[in-house]
Design a protein that fits this description.
The protein is α/β, with parallel strands linked by helices. 35% of the residues lie in helices and 26% in strands. The chain contains 11 helices and 15 strands. The structure holds nicotinamide-adenine-dinucleotide (NAD). The site of nicotinamide-adenine-dinucleotide has 24 residues, from helix 1. This is Gfo/Idh/MocA family oxidoreductase. It comes from Plantactinospora endophytica.
Length: 327
Amino acid sequence: MRVCRVGLVGAGGVAQRHARVLAGFDDVRIVGVTDVVAEAAARLAGTTEARVFADVPALLSADLDAVYVCVPPFAHGETEEAVLAAGAALFVEKPLALDRETATRIDRLVEQRGAVTAVGHYWRYLAAVDEARLILADRPARLVGGVWLDKVPPVGWWPRRDRSGGPIVEQAAHVLDLARYLVGEVTEVWAVGNGTPPDVDGADVDGATAAALRFATGAVGTLGTTCALGWKHRAGLEVYADGLALSVGEDGLLVRDADGERRMPGDLEQGRTSVDRAFVDAVRGIGADIRVPYAEGLRTHLLALAVAESAVTGRPVRIPPLEPAGV
Ligand SMILES: NC(=O)c1ccc[n+]([C@@H]2O[C@H](COP(=O)([O-])OP(=O)(O)OC[C@H]3O[C@@H](n4cnc5c(N)ncnc54)[C@H](O)[C@@H]3O)[C@@H](O)[C@H]2O)c1
């Protein structure tokens, strides 16, 4: 395959970002786009050479190598099934779904088909995260503190729990994924929501959530989210080990230890480009650096759902250990 033929499902904010990045790769052709809102598809197509297709089956008839699924959380399921049935590689934006069942069903299909997949957890490609992982490789984390402190995003579905899954599932999934990548699996969570939705029409999600996390390694942690601000304040993770304090996230890396303090600036564009480059390379068979295939994204999704469930029930939720491969 010399050129990777890509289709886009969903033409909103994140699809526009992927389209921009993919348009910069000379071995990718964005063949088509579809969206339930035809004008959205037409707008995105107007910025690329892509054609507008009426629906997913029509898009999939265009001999695609890969499809980006960039729909809101409530709209996952049938599209992924159709993409996999058509034999195309699958890039899915997080969160994978609203629930466990849909994402688990797709995961099984991915495994049966042996499909190339990737999930949009691009933080794993940030240079600051690479550096943090190196530093933590031989320093067991003791305490972890994750935050996502933000405004309400400007999309109508976001403040509704039955559309977005809420801030933990929709946003803080990035922080939870980073915690898993740097510290390891979480075995138990306990969370509380503040019960006060943000001040926007139709909102029913918690405006703030606090969670406690227990890691398999023995580390303990917290996760705090709020959407009560008028700006994006911070999204990232603090990790403390013996004689080491490390702060990593969208704003880069800050490390403090016996040698003093050093910083590495954040570069989101680099992560956003690398996640697409790694996917295209894997689809073309010229690379093997997909850091979050669907099964790995599912682990993060199940963790986020456990935190969200605990915030609703007020009870701790245990997360079952990974089943051995093939079970
Ligand atoms: N990885 C990241 O950094 C990142 C950044 C932003 C958004 N996201 C994720 O991407 C997803 C989409 O976010 P967005 O900001 O692009 O939302 P958006 O509302 O701007 O765009 C979503 C688009 O999908 C379309 N759509 C809805 N249902 C559809 C269906 N069944 N088939 C085809 N199109 C459909 C909508 O009409 C809309 O145009 C969300 O889950 C969000 O969490 C990820």
